Amino acid sequence: MLRLIWQEIKFRRNGIIGWSLGLCFFPLVYIGIYPSVADQMAGFADLEIYQAMGMSLGTFSDWVGSILVVFMPLIAAVYGLINGTGTLASEEEDGRLEMMVTLPLPRWQIVTAKAIALAVASLVMFAVVAVVSLLVFLAIESQITTDLTGLDVALAVLVSWPLVFAMGMISLFLAAFCANRRTAGVIAAAILIVSYFGSNLAASTSALEPFEPLFLFTYLDASGAAVVAGQSPGDTLVLITIGLVAFGLALLFFQRRNLTVGAWPWQRASVT
Amino acid sequence: MSENVIETEDLTVYYGKHRGIKDVNLTVEKGEAFGFLGPNGAGKTTTQRVLLDVIRPTAGRATMFGLDCREHGVALRRRIGYLPGELALYKDMKADQFFKMYEYLRGPNGAAGYWRELAQRLDLDTSRKIGNFSRGNKQKVGIVAAFMSRPELLILDEPTGGLDPLVQQTVMEMVREVIADGRTVFFSSHILPEVQAVCDRVGIIRDGRLVTTQRVEELIAARLKRLTLVFADLPPEGAFALDGVVEMERTEKSVILEVRESLPQVLALAAQYGIEDIETHSISLEEIFLEYYGKGNGGNHA
């Protein structure tokens, strides 16, 4: 099992490096420029368009929340989506999965190794972004007024990781369930987009309020207060649970399905 | 008593409403090379994938080494080397990295580093990226991967596709060595001369059903014989109008017949008409194969 996990992480080596560098754009640019735009941003704090996007810009804590707890995880969730659907569905479509499943490895180990590798890869990215955020904060600390510490900023990044975990596992499940990668990718993308906008709209529109618990981003608090105090353990637990349930479903469907034939579950193994 | 390495009982696979294979019954004995013949879409790959537990049967059962392919899939795959027909590899890896990974994931099996010997034999440059290989070289990577663990059973789907004739010959030698070593080969192909050259028995599958399973020589012997009979004076037209005999051609001195049945009667008649010479032509497996496909023979004789 460890061999397989290690191999899967090695496959993701380039992705981890590339995505880590890309995600570092957020602290390097957005946090780095804060001292020079702080006054202007405070003036935009009440604009509804920003509220609809889950952004709050009044203080440095709000700014960190908007950039590092909403936008950065949103982009990182795209990695979870691409990687989650890609590891099973796209390997199945291009035939590489056949080479893997005909090795003496149980199917559950193949899915588990991919899930763990995805989780580790995204965690490494978040760790890199957290360290870079800490360094950028230390560089600008003397130019801003805030109660935050460098550790607070780094932790704000790390505690938003469960969202990417949940999105990655949902994508993995869709890849195990759907007949092809395209369908799995489209559904996963729809979940991500609807979750993002749905959560923000539900927070500001009473008619959508009952649906708020259905959106992943509901469980990620981007407010300045949450950056200071940390995410609610309950919300974090919900995201982790969603991820684990999706992983369990991915295991179940991958274990039962015919591979290499690109069929939906109801098209597999039925006598006519 | 011979030991069956592969055994299927009424093995059936449907993909939704589409037929994969239907009631396939076959056995492959230990130490034999079994050729699985059929055109594209006949069900060869489906059968192999069921054996490897990639696809689950709709009905029936498949066992290898006496163990159920689904329940004991992991233990069985440890004893098997597989070359898929539609080979897909990790393009960004160098060939040697791929073999090391494959060896690593298979776990220790006493054949560590054997891939180097195989790669050298196939003249494969393992320091190059797989993505830069030609189709033939990619196929060599697949062949090395299948043979590298010295498996007890080799399942090869169209192993020589894309290879040049010299390498094809080397691969066939490698298959013969596996057989000589007492191991087993389940070999699907539609390149019939190589099946004929290597295999002990063949199964012919058509439209998902196993049409026949026989020893290669029996299959050839039991089917058509082509005879050229030379006479001083040609017998009259219709002289050989017997069951299972077709007169193909008539020249000034000879009659060419295709004989499926009634061979003793043909020879007796030829003697009556004063035969001077007789030539027999062996029918190739290819001709038999085409006969099965062309004339709609059915049944499941495995």
Shape of chain B: elongated
Cα-atom radius of gyration of chain B? 23 Å
Helix content of chain B: 25-40%
Under the CATH scheme, which class of the largest domain in chain B?
Alpha Beta
Give a count of the beta strands of chain B, DSSP E runs of length 2 or more.
Answer: 14
Quick one: overall form of chain A? globular
Distance between the termini of chain A: 39 Å
Mean pLDDT of chain A: 84
The total of helices of chain A stands at: 13
Beta-strand portion of chain B reads: 25-35%
Count of DSSP strands of chain A:
0
What class do helices, strands and sheet pairing of chain A give?
A: mainly alpha
If interface size is counted as residues with C-beta under 8 Å from the partner's C-beta, which chains form the largest one? A-B, 26 and 35 residues
What name goes with the CATH superfamily of the largest domain in chain B?
Answer: P-loop containing nucleotide triphosphate hydrolases
Q: Could you estimate the helical fraction of the residues of chain A in percent?
A: over 70%
Distance between the termini of chain B: 18 Å
List descriptors.
heterodimer; A: 272 residues; mainly alpha; 13 helices; B: 302 residues; alpha/beta; Rossmann fold; Alpha-Beta Plaits; four-stranded antiparallel β-sheet; elongated; disordered C terminus
Task: Please characterize this protein's 3D structure.
The complex is a heterodimer of chains A (272) and B (302). Chain A has 272 residues and is mainly α. Chain A is 73% helix and 0% strand. Chain A is built from 13 helices and no strands. The longest helix of chain A is centred in the first third of the chain and has 35 residues, at 60-94. The relative contact order of chain A is 0.15. The model of chain A has no long low-confidence stretch (mean pLDDT 84). Chain B folds into two domains: 4-213, P-loop containing nucleotide triphosphate hydrolases (Rossmann fold, 3-Layer(aba) Sandwich); 224-282, Alpha-Beta Plaits. Chain B has helices spanning 44-51, 73-77, 95-106, 114-121, 135-147, 165-180, 192-198, 216-222, 263-272, 285-295, and strands at residues 4-15, 18-29, 33-37, 59-64, 67-68, 80-83, 153-157, 184-189, 201-206, 209-215, 225-231, 245-250, 254-259, 275-281. Chain B is elongated and about 75 Å long. Mean pLDDT of chain B is 84; it is low at 296-302. The chains are: A mainly alpha (272), B alpha/beta (302).
